[in-house]
Amino acid sequence: MLQTIEFERPAPLDNADGPVCVPPAPIVAQAWARVPEPLSTERRQELRQRARDLLARRDAVLVAHYYVDSDLQDLAEETGGCVADSLEMARFGRDHAAQTLIVAGVRFMGETSKILSPDKRVLMPDLDATCSLDLGCPVDEFTAFCDANPDRTVVVYANTSAAVKARADWTVTSSIGLEIVKHLHAQGKKILWAPDRHLGGYIQQQTGADMLLWQGSCLVHDEFKGVELELLRQEHPGAKVLVHPESPAAVVAQADVVGSTSQLIAAAVKSDATEFIVATDKAILHKMRAAAPGKHFVEAPTAGNSATCKSCAHCPWMAMNGLEGLVRLLEAAEHGAVPDHEINVDPALGREAKVAIDRMLDFAAAHARKPAPAFTSEGSQGFGPA
Fold first, then answer.
1. Which InterPro entries match (predicted)?
2. Which of 77, 193, 234, 385 could cross-link to 200 by cystine, CB 3.0-4.6 Å?
3. How far apart are CA 242 and CA 209, in angstroms?
4. What pTM did the predictor assign?
């Protein structure tokens, strides 16, 4: 079944001749996602075993994002793959001996894997699985925005296409973006940031950097409601609030910990608290519950009391990754027929995009650790590396 999805994207520039001090305002656009049919317990078990067998027969490794179906997360770990954020997925695939990478996530994640592993085959269960941040930052319009502000250092979030990364000076993740912008700000650099305005605004507030923000947003995180979160906190007075910085400022302001997916999981594990309210895609709760058994996790609210879904925080494109699609892909790969599943990035474009990614990796290596710990409400660093 196809689901129509509305998301925000900035309006095109009107042939700007000079610096654009105010980014184009968002407009509403539409996209679609395929909604998979629910599976019976017997069918799930059958497909999981079939996927295990197929992965074992091929020189392939499964890497999955925290936001995909729990069966795929478990399968990745059971078969020697990994469950991680987008960059760690790509790094794991790059460093793994397998010559075929199966990426369970959204398209920009497959592209990032291909950029870091250009000689490997990168396959995805569904190439139509995309991202509102990626859709909301078309390369032609983004290039025009950059060209209208040539005095700014271009920093883009990992949730962008290979073409947008190729136009950037730096690519960052949510776990190290703040630290890199702080570094650039100390050098006197002015920043052009894309695509997520909430993450950019959070980094701007924390660093004081001069940042011009592309007006994109994640359709999942943008729906969290500050007022509803405040009411939920009253119901759970002892709970710590874990928030991804793609969320609106009114939500971030109530957080005990602000961080990337891996940082929020680490916070749940290392905190003395036993109850948490979590403001990010609710699929992450599967990993949190496994990593911190005995602790209680509550989904942050995305809608008011009159809504049919109190917490709807699950990416419809991440949901397109399922066991049936994975098995279909692996069966096709056995016969060599995977044009509908294979990620290809123009080699020249991939090399350009890799420059911006490598700058981030080199920065992290030079600081002798992985990307920055999470930020806590007390203003100190959080619970360890991403």
1. NadA, NadA_sf
2. 193
3. 25
4. 0.92
